[in-house]
Design goal:
2 domains, 5 helices, alpha/beta, 177 residues, 4-stranded mixed sheet, 6 strands
């Protein structure tokens, strides 16, 4: 069974989803791929995981980096899971490019290259927005490209974090992400 709860953020409504133990979804209402991992059969319920996630969101929208992460459960292809794992490592207030994620993945897999467009597809299908910070991924020149919640929300989230798009997060070669 899946469960849902709603959260009203400064940027609009957010739908939370859970399997009862972990957070499985967090979407801006109406965004692209909205609730695409949510089963048809689900019920609204007040769960500890939702209270913990709401606490995280309150701290985040208060302009601070939350000191904890609620338990997350994400199901997808190994490629998407690998991309999302990198997203989770991007520090608050910094950004990374799609190309840099592709470079890190290629290095981890021992291949010469991985398509930045394939990375973009995985980033776009991230089912747990904000906490798995896909909004911290920018184009090669620092441009705000693609965000399932909308570019306006991406810009607002980066502004909330006081991000300078020149402060790129570039993992060192050999860094385990």
């Amino acid at each position: 069974m899946q469960y849902t709860a709603e959260y009203q953020s400064p940027l609009g409504g957010i739908l939370l989803a859970s399997d009862g133990e972990s957070l499985t979804g967090l979407w801006f209402v109406g965004q692209k791929y909205f609730a695409d991992t949510l089963l048809h059969d689900h019920e609204e319920k007040n769960l500890p995981i939702f209270r913990q996630t709401i606490q995280w969101l309150d701290i985040y929208f208060g302009g601070e980096a939350p000191p904890f992460t609620p338990p997350l459960s994400m199901k997808a292809s190994p490629f998407r899971l690998a991309v999302w794992e990198i997203l989770k490592q991007i520090p608050y207030g910094q950004v990374i490019t799609y190309g840099e994620i592709a470079r890190v993945l290629a290095q981890k897999r021992g291949v010469e290259t991985i398509s930045a467009q394939a990375v973009g597809g995985a980033v776009g299908h991230n089912p747990i927005s904000i906490i798995v910070p896909c909004h911290r991924v920018v184009g090669n020149n620092g441009s705000l490209t693609g965000y399932a919640g909308g570019i306006d929300k991406k810009a607002a989230l980066l502004k909330l974090e006081n991000v300078s798009r020149t402060r790129l997060f570039i993992p060192q070669k050999g860094t385990a992400l």
